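User: Could you check the structure of this?
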Amino acid sequence: MTDYTIRRFNPYTEDELLSALKEYATQKKVDYVPAEAFCSWLGISETTIASHFGKWSLFCKAARLNPRYTRTHDKDTLLRNLDMVWEKLGR
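Assistant: Sure, the predicted structure tokens are below.
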């Protein structure tokens, strides 16, 4: 009987992906690498990264690269800031 299951081909190990990311960052002289740019440079999809690391930010963290955005503010702080901006604008 013919086997019709789909097999995914993923030739990269986590260490290979991490070293490729570090190489890319070194070549481009950047602290943060956009997912789209790296994946097109290496010729992979973002799903490959997600299957190994879960999220792009975790991949960057594992490679010891800076995250693009830091989300250190809680919801209440953001809402207070929004209120202050609205008051200054006279809304």
